[in-house]
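Exercise 7.
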Amino acid sequence: MNICLVRPASVTTMGGLGDDAVPPLGLAYLAGTLESLGHRVTLVDGPGEALGRYGPAAALPGALRHGLSDDEILARIPEESELIGVTCMFSLEWLTTRTLLGRIRDRFARARIVAGGEHFTAMPEESLATCPAIDACVLGEGEQTLTDIVEALATGRDLAAVGGLCLRGTEGPVRTGERPRLRELAAIPRPAWHLTPIESYLDQGVMGGINLGRSMPIMASRGCPYRCTFCSNPGMWGVVWRARPAADVLDEIRDYMKRYRATNFDFYDLTAIVKREWIVEFCQRIIDEKLAITWQFPSGTRTDVLDTEITRLLYRSGCAFITYAPESGSVEMLKRIKKQVTPTRMLASARGAVRNGLQVKASFILGFPTEQLRHILGSYR
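Solution. The predicted structure, written as tokens, is:
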């Protein structure tokens, strides 16, 4: 089947300039899976194909659009596309994505249009109700769901038989049932970076973490065992933490070192450090092999296993930067958002990480419902 995966131009603000563009890891995984099954795949990366271009975002006063214009994106979608998948991670980008979806429908009337990503997983009914262009919303991780969609279309089966979707029904949107999360992550084909402008990201030093050279994104695990009220993870990735074998992750790193001359690796895991045994094995393998790399956690991590011994091991293995995610210093607010951390323990862990040579950042959220000034002041320690 002829399939095109589309990442619309991203939306940002002057304050967030440059933080919105990272290589499309999710679409690259989907493309790799589809290619492994013999399908013809095209990937259009709106921001990545015009990394230096910013302009006003229509319908969003004060916001900036980053990347290709809709006309350019449409021109890059092959005319023979039978299935077009469009992603939207942040709801900030929904209005511009919806406009693009409408234009894709107008131009590719015979193609099936499937939408996926964090926004569509969180708000599938709303998305279908306000965007007639969409045929189906994929809920959660998409590799197996998209594979089943393609098989159903090829054999003439109704998409209602495919789990993990939200479809249009006679009386409104209908969910087709839960889809089990993928457990054997090592069996998922590697990201198809050759379909993306990855060299542009590398050459221009555009990545999610601090710039430490030619950087590639890596995902070693999926899911998170916690249920913070503000987080989309339970619906998107699930509450079961699943990790790839440490040896498999190292094999991918070595491949990128050879293929792309990468020297730094950004781990985009939601909660990378859950099992002490896993992180110890991973670090020790890097040390034993004497890999001349740096790696980092631009996403927020927890402190459950981040004691002095682990942070020392992280530093020895080349980890240069770590982000803690306390969200709030108020014990009362932490309880309300179900953030199972102890501020004093996290602070001690962060101080230990600094003493062991790591660069440390902390992420906080302001503006929770019912939050007051006294809660915010609790974050100043």
